Structure formats: C-alpha cells, structure tokens
Amino acid sequence: MVAVHGARHFACSYLPEFESGPLVPCKLGFAKFSIGNNAVNNLGLCRGGDARLRSSRIIKAMEESAAFLTKDCVSISGKSTLACALSRGLHSRGKLTYILDGDNVRHGLNRDLSFKAEDRAENIRRIGEVAKLFADSGVICIASLISPYRKDRDGCRALLPDGDFIEVFMDVPLQVCEARDPKGLYKLARAGKIKGFTGVDDPYEPPLNCEIVLKQMGDDCPSPCDMAETVISYLEEKGYLQA
Ligand SMILES: Nc1ncnc2c1ncn2[C@@H]1O[C@H](COP(=O)(O)OS(=O)(=O)O)[C@@H](OP(=O)(O)O)[C@H]1O
Ligand SMILES: Nc1ncnc2c1ncn2[C@@H]1O[C@H](COP(=O)(O)OP(=O)(O)O)[C@@H](O)[C@H]1O
Fold first, then answer.
1. For residue 118, which phi and psi values (nearest 5 degrees)?
2. Which residue(s) pair with 212 in the sheet?
C-alpha cells in the first residue's frame, strides 16, 4: 500500500497533459478520475485474477501534506493529482491499480464520518481494510488521504504485511496550498465557517519515518509525472514491480 498523504498544494504551473488529457473529474465516489478507473477496468478484463500479480503492493497515496496530504499535508497539496499520475505510470508498466481518494470515499463507504479525530481514524482504518482486499486480489491500491495523525497511519501500516505499506509524504508548504484554494475551503476555514480544518485549526502530524518524501523546494514544484516517476523508481528498486 502506498500511502500518499499531506494536505498541501503545489504552486507550480499545472502540467499540460493534465489540462488537455482525458482525465475527467466528477464528484461521485470512485469515478473521480475516469481515465484511471477505465484503465483499471480494461486491465481487469484482461488480467484480473492473474496469480503473478498477487504480490503487488498496496499504494496509499497522498494525504498531501495534505492527503494527505500534510506537515503539513493538507487539502489541495496535489494528492489526487499524484495518485492519478502514479496510476497511469503503473498501468503503462502492466500493473493493476485502484485509487482510494478520501474526498471520494467520503461520498459513499465513509459518508457517516465527520472530520473529528476519531472519525478521521475510522476513515483511514476502513480505507486500509479495503486496500488490503485489493492487495489480496493483486491490485496496487493508491490511497489519497490527508490522514493527519501519525498513530492512524501507523495503524494502517500494521494492517498489512511488512513492506506492503509505502507511505508517501507530500511536503508542500501550507501557504502554497492556501494560495491555491480551488475549492475555497481555506477561505471558509479562515473565516470560521468550517471548523477543524487541517492546517488551519486542526493538526497535521508529519511522518517521522516514511518511505518517500516529495518535497517542494522554494518556488519549484516537481510536476505530477516527475513525482510519480520518483515513486515508481522506488518501487522498482525495491522489487515491488517484478511480475
Ligand atoms: N475539516 C476538514 N479538514 C480537512 N479536509 C476537509 C475538512 N472538511 C472537508 N474537507 C475535505 O475533505 C477532504 C479530505 O478528506 P480525507 O478523507 O482525506 O481526510 S482525513 O484523511 O480523514 O483527514 C479534503 O479534500 P482534498 O482537498 O482532496 O484533500 C477537503 O476538501
Ligand atoms: N504537481 C503539481 N503542479 C502544479 N499544480 C498541481 C500539482 N498537483 C496538483 N496541482 C494543482 O493543485 C490542485 C489540487 O490538486 P489535488 O490533486 O486535487 O489536491 P488534493 O487531492 O491534495 O486536494 C489541482 O487542481 C491542480 O491544479
């Protein structure tokens, strides 16, 4: 499981391929990134149940320092964007993937959960259990969550066999995420209209020991594809992508 967490946003210019490409965001459930899901479905028809894929690991993506995002990983750090780029990169290497995006899962499976600490804990616990089921079927699960509490992320890690949980921290400055604010949530939080917003009046605990840190240096933000390649290189080096 590759856990990308953090709640921040990237300030660099958006990649053309994400502007003109076939990614079609929608508001419901798991269909947020239709190209990713379609690709998964297509691959599933061809390769579902392939025992050679059973060793695939679960990837939980971005709580962006945010999705996870985070340290400041908060909302709008680019978790979902990275999850999508990562999914595409893995598909191109013949791997099955599925994205579990906190923002989407909260419309269905986790619709009963609030943003209180105990509900955030339950959010990541359920997502970890679902990711475990995907891993059993040979699918790499990319979870894109803020998951602000260290103990909750560690609890999720403990659900999985050693080495199967890969935590990716998107270390993007809060002010970068806040300046972006495409949904206007930071503005509402600063105005006191949303209470307990991560990074504003709710905590984010950066990881002490995670597998991958994607850090923004100064004003330069790596592109989603470059970040995805960093993650994929790690997976290749560690032998996760061997058939
Ligand atoms: N109070 C508060 N704090 C943080 N985020 C909030 C809050 N209320 C709503 N939202 C929206 O919910 C998205 C984060 O959901 P997650 O499931 O990833 O959060 S968590 O892991 O349970 O902390 C997050 O979406 P992303 O921007 O995709 O991260 C926010 O848009
Ligand atoms: N690497 C990046 N470079 C530039 N802009 C980005 C990058 N990643 C994300 N963004 C921008 O940030 C916005 C929020 O990204 P998103 O992936 O939805 O964040 P999150 O899932 O963390 O809330 C997107 O609309 C996109 O314009």
1. -70, -30
2. 168
Residue that is written with structure tokens 């972006």 in the block: 180
Q: CA–CA separation, 52 vs 228, rounded Å? A: 23
Return the bridge partners of 98, or none.
141
Nearest Cα neighbor of 94 from 46, 143, 128 is 46
pLDDT digits (tens, 9 = 90+) for 45-89: 222 233 333 334 455 443 332 222 222 356 888 999 999 999 999
Which residues 6+ apart lie within 8 Å of 30 measured at CB? 37, 98, 99, 100, 101, 104, 105, 108
Shortest-distance atom of ligand 2 to CA 222: 1
Q: DSSP labels for 60-82? A: E---BTBBTBTTT--TTSSHHHH
pTM of the model: 0.79
Ligand 2 in contact with 182 (CB < 6 A)?
Answer: yes
Question: What ipTM was reported for this prediction?
Answer: 0.97
Nearest to 130 by CA among 162, 105, 95: 105
Probe target for ligand 2 pocket from 13, 17, 76, with the most ligand atoms within 8 Å of CB: 76
Question: Quick check: helix, strand or coil at residue 59?
Answer: strand
Say if ligand 2 is within 6 A of residue 104 CB. no
Here the tokens at position 178 are 């806040």
Say if residues 32 and 88 touch (Cβ distance below 8 Å): no
Lookup: tokens for 157? 């890690």
> Could you confirm whether 92 is annotated as catalytic?
no
